Amino acid sequence: MDNKKNLLIIGYGGMGSWHAERALKSDVVRLVGIYDIKPERRALAEQKGIKAYASREEALSDPSVEMVTVAVPNDMHEEIVIDALNHGKNALSEKPVTLSMDSLERMFGAAEKNHKVFSVHQNRRWDVDYLAMKQVSESGEIGQVINLESRIHGSRGIPSDWRGIKQYGGGMLYDWGVHLIDQALMILGWDPVSVMCRFDHITNQEVDDGFKLFLDYKDGRNAFIEVGTLNFLPMPRFYMRCRNGTALIRDWRENCQIAKCTHWHESEVLPVETAAGLTKTMAPRDSVTLDTYEIARPSSDVHDYYRNFCKVIDGKAELCVSHDQMRKVLQVILAAFRSVETGRPEPLV
User: Fold this and answer.
1) Considering its fold, how many domains does the chain have in total?
2) Residue 137 belongs to what domain range?
3) CB 3.0 to 4.6 Å from 217: which of 96, 221, 316, 337, for a disulfide?
4) Whether the predicted pLDDT of 1 surpasses 60
């Protein structure tokens, strides 16, 4: 028996097409069609054998549609999600879920009123580099995390589409920051106390084309998150210091490297000569006190997001991206914007 949920995608651009391609291969959803405001995008879908609705109202009024994925510019998420929920459809939004806390609460309210499931697509919880860091953290094999550094560096500037325009919710904090913040919270915990942020405006003056963000916790742990779009020599993707070692991923395509301290003190540390003097403090460790190895890339299946969403519709699971998590990520983003304006850390309450 086919128990697939009938899926409608609104917005058939880059991410909408991504969702469509995966829906066509899914074991839990069936793509019934798409809607896009651009006729050329609707025509492209039809060329690929995908039904294209003539209007949003026609699409949402189709009684066969059970769930809707919203993949449109950020400023339109609230309107379309609430429209879908009010039509009796379960809805998921591309990230960032929306642009203000009031907007998010209105979306939650519409889901509750209509007794429908609503969440956001945090697909980079299935990135294997993040999963490797999370695995190291949760295993405790190199001790408690002290701080996490997470970076995405590119060299092509900010995209030239709506992501470079403020009114549409453009900028790298909304585009990539939402992912890295979510990943950091998944590793370090959902109770940070403050955020400090600084924007880059190198290739775009209207929105941030990069940023540096500091996320602090009450017990002293912290995360440093950086996105850059004019970095021709990227820094490591992840760097995590723990009480008994360090974890490093230089590039998302590479394995996680571990350096585990097996003995804190050596019986005798010889000074090392550097360019202008001697140092014991920075003398490199050897195999007597340090164990170095790699861990295999964790397995990952991005289809698990839709599998979870469909189970929630059936009352058989809880959302993997919960409403409280959605609130917290947006709170951090909005506090980061305030920090840029004030030039100081902003509290998270």
Assistant:
1) 2
2) 125-301+331-347
3) 221
4) no
